[in-house]
Design goal:
This protein is mainly alpha-helical and about 190 residues long. The protein has one domain. Helix 1 runs parallel beside helix 7, helix 2 runs antiparallel to helix 5 and helix 3 packs antiparallel against helix 4. Keywords: Membrane, Transmembrane, Transmembrane helix.
Length: about 190
């Protein structure tokens, strides 16, 4: 290997290690700009569960990225069209995906579809409650759920389960950055 190839290899390695964190920070900050309370970003909590459930139900760690794209579209539609709650739509899609996963025999391993479905129920419920709560409570609930999910991301990154490592890093940074912004808005 030539010196140029070694240098390119190191840069690619650096890039592959850092792009998910940089993208997560950018999306987290962009999602939190201009918010008034946690209810505005409550669908992100539902999306965090939706992404993992999709990957588990389909038995494909890479499926997490397209699921993230679907959640972005749903959140965008929810912001653009009054009366559309993206959290409800993600819960409905998650239910369909859970049925698909069951039909495909995805009950094993227990940390796959069963655990991800339970997490989706908890996160979806938290998003729905936060969307209706007072600003102080919604901010606390959303920030808390995002921080808990950041820990979930770290665990899944360390174990190499359910989603690809890039998604786990991306989500951990996004969740942490957005939780910090929601807490700042809630406290101020």
């Amino acid at each position: 290997m030539t010196a140029i190839e070694q240098g390119m290899s190191r840069r690619q390695t650096w890039f592959h290690r850092t792009w998910p964190a940089a993208a997560g920070l950018a999306v987290g900050v962009a999602s939190g700009l201009g918010i008034v309370d946690g209810a505005e970003v409550a669908p992100v909590v539902a999306a965090s569960g939706f992404v993992y459930l999709t990957a588990a139900a389909l038995g494909s760690r890479v499926a997490a990225w397209p699921a993230f794209g679907v959640s972005v579209v749903l959140i965008g539609v929810g912001k653009a069209v009054p009366g559309i709650d993206p959290s409800v739509w993600m819960l409905a899609l998650a239910a369909v995906l859970a049925v698909v996963g069951l039909a495909r025999g995805r009950l094993r391993p227990p940390w796959g579809l069963p655990l991800q479905a339970a997490a989706m129920l908890v996160l979806g419920a938290a998003a729905l409650v936060a969307a209706q709560a007072s600003p102080g409570w919604s901010g606390a609930l959303v920030a808390g759920a995002l921080l808990v999910h950041a820990g979930w991301d770290v665990h899944h990154h360390r174990t190499g389960r359910v989603v690809v490592p890039s998604m786990a890093v991306f989500c951990a940074v996004l969740d942490t950055a957005l939780a910090a912004l929601v807490l700042a808005v809630t406290v101020v």
